[in-house]
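Action item from last week, closing it out:
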Amino acid sequence: MNLNQVTLPVKDMNEAVAFYLTLGMIQIVDTPHYARFQCPDGDATFSLSLETEEFSNSAVIYFEHEQLDELYATLVEKGISFEQ
């Protein structure tokens, strides 16, 4: 069995898409209420679904990267802020 994808709910599709593109994800589906991304390394994909109703989401996504310090510096330069 293979995990096909995980879908996350979002309130602002444009903001969420921009964030994942900034991280370097490759967008493979683009609609006003659904977006799907492929990770730049490997075959993993995930998607976003626009939700208009209130929702609670406690999902956590973990990405791995061999050169973490360099990736961190690159993302800070692109405007992403980190809390820890």
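Closing note: Residues 8 and 60 are 10 Å apart (CA to CA).
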